[in-house]
From TrEMBL, chains A, B:
Name of the molecule in the record: Recombination protein RecR
Entry GO MF terms: DNA binding; zinc ion binding
Any matching Pfam family: RecR_HhH
Domain Toprim positions: 116-211
PANTHER family documented for this protein: RECOMBINATION PROTEIN RECR (PTHR30446)
PROSITE patterns: RECR, TOPRIM
Cross-referenced InterPro entries: DNA_Rcmb_RecR, Rcmb_RecR, Rcmb_RecR_Znf, TOPRIM_dom, TOPRIM_RecR
Function: May play a role in DNA repair. It seems to be involved in an RecBC-independent recombinational process of DNA repair. It may act with RecF and RecO.
Zinc finger regions, C4-type: 93-108
Length: 235, 235
């Protein structure tokens, strides 16, 4: 605990000049020390677990832990079971890399899907967003990341080799690249396009432009530029 | 799921005038429907559990669930065990109402504590804050709430009867009331003071004033008023 904590050591000058005190942050004070009574062990452990989640610090962890104690017993049991089950029963599809219970995943198994189009995304959550659209009936390929020279992520570190193998073995006519509109996402799209196009496969990229329902006034200049560049004739 | 969700029903006019669509929010779209593939069941269940926690909505629940899948197996197992243990092994102390593994709690059992002072707080988390101060060596009493006519919380609904029984049976000289400085906290302090003082027990309230290290410029006028009222002679 002491080693892992990124606490700031504060030196306080307390009570006249009686003594110096070193005040550690909340992290160190979870445990019972020097006759000071703090959280009982089960709650400390639960707080430690909550703090491992992203965006949850010591204060929120304490709030969630106390909330948990007051939850219905069945809800807590279900929560514990769901945690174990999510870790144990879920895996990545060996074909597309989507999160799934069965391998291959239900999308890859679906015979009614158009097997000539593959849509490439960064993250399994993107698949869910695209599925909600209800208009795309091709297959997916999930990269689980983007190329990033700064973070040292190369083509071998994300799901690109399996995409290439897929394109070699399956009859694919079009690859739609739907990486995010960030610098890394754009670079990944460029890289994939240069890799795939020579094989005679059509490579497309999702359109950039104004969000539906948005105000031109509030759009940033790059989005506006993309919207002007990608303008379409009114039929 | 459909019944419990507090979703906003949006009516969209899609694709020319081909059809009206009812777009429910993320809640309804967790499940697999009409050949659209969404989250696998283990992740749906985990998201449902995360969403029962305070301040966690559908988007955060999805993020936490995906994070959980990528966590180390041991960490997930520990998390599940911590949940069960916190619910099963923790209870409220039968004397003071503090959260504890053993009954009575370690503070009530500690013979070195000054048994003539009881500090009354709203919440077990307040005990932890006060213990960190390292200067208070009396006992505690946790109300688990405040009097609130609006929410229908009367003296019987919070831990007041057990406090009165304690004062009758133990030799207490002073009760320090440390409810929060809110309208309900102040009202509860007033109520307790009128109830306890006739028994010849000294009733005190924590001082209100400026926080240490704060700027007078940014202090609100009620805090300033309390600070002036509670001024002390410099020795």
């Amino acid at each position: 605990m002491i080693e892992t904590c990124n606490s700031i050591l504060k030196m306080g000058f307390q009570d006249g000049s009686r003594f110096f005190t070193f005040l550690f942050n909340d992290f160190l004070l979870f445990k019972e020390r020097n006759g000071i009574y703090l959280y009982p062990e089960p709650i400390t452990k639960l707080m430690d677990s909550y703090m491992k989640l992203p965006g949850i610090g010591a204060k929120t962890a304490a709030r969630l832990a106390f909330f948990t104690i007051n939850m219905k017993e069945d809800d807590v049991t279900d929560f514990a079971k769901a945690l174990i089950s999510a870790k144990r029963d879920l895996n990545y599809c060996s074909i597309c890399g989507h999160i799934t219970q069965d391998d291959p995943c239900s999308i890859c198994q679906d015979k009614s899907r158009d097997r000539s189009i593959i849509l490439v995304v960064e993250d399994p959550k993107d698949v869910i967003s695209l599925e909600k659209m209800r208009e795309y009936h091709g297959l997916y390929h999930i990269l689980h990341g983007v190329l990033s020279p700064i973070e040292g992520t190369g083509p071998e570190d994300i799901n690109i080799p399996s995409l290439i193998r897929r394109l070699q073995s399956e009859e694919v006519k079009e690859v739609i690249i739907a990486t995010n509109a960030t610098a890394e996402g754009e670079a990944t799209a460029m890289y994939l396009s240069r890799l795939i196009r020579p094989a005679g496969i059509k490579v497309t990229r999702l359109a950039h432009g104004l969000s539906v329902g948005s105000d031109i006034e509030y759009a940033d200049e790059i989005t506006l530029l993309k919207a002007v560049e990608g303008r379409r004739e009114i039929e």
